[in-house]
Write the structure tokens for this entry.
Amino acid sequence: MAAVILALGAAPALAEPTDIVVRVIAQDAKFVGSSMGGVRIVLRDPKSGTVFAEGRTEGGTGNTARIMKSDGRSPLRVDGSEAAFSATLDISRPTLVELDAYGPLDYPESAVQVSQQRWIMPGENATIGDGWTIELPGLVINPETSVAGLSVGISAKVMPMCGCPITPDGLWPADEYEVHVSAWQKGSQLATSKLAFDTSPGVFSGDVELPAKGRYELTVSARNTRTGNSGVRTIEVVAE
């Protein structure tokens, strides 16, 4: 009997298909989906670097009421309409999986990467509740400039990573955001100005006065004063 038990114990475990659903939610906002180009997802072994699966999130931003108005412990935020990436891993033992998420892919100048690890058990699908949901911090900033002498006019559209609208009376109130622009040369800040909310959704405008002719690096920064969520975009201008 002992020999039989040892033989059975030495037999290799069979791999079991295990489903994983990954969703990426913008900080203080909704899911990041196809309207923003999605988020690149890589699932890998954190020790060997072996990639188990990769792709991008596809779908909508989700149910606004479920996401933004839910209360209680671990509220269920999904209803099937939100963007996701799905994969099936064939694993035979508990496996530590690392998730890398990079996006939004349509806005590479504002994209960030976040990583998270989670134990995945053979045959126990990681699809319960919201699935494997990871938060993507940051703000997308799209600036446009016009140069007249030493004066640079700036109009910057700001939005959460999901593309959700910043408006005066909406879920993302304009008065909760501060937007500044600063002018730099050779690592030194030479001028700065605050941009004011201009038009919906999320356009902040203003001017910055440059000290002299030349090439400048303009840094536009935005911050939510309630959550601290922030974003930065850098562009170049030439004053002639």
About this structure: The chain has two helices and 14 strands. The two ends are 91 Å apart (CA to CA).
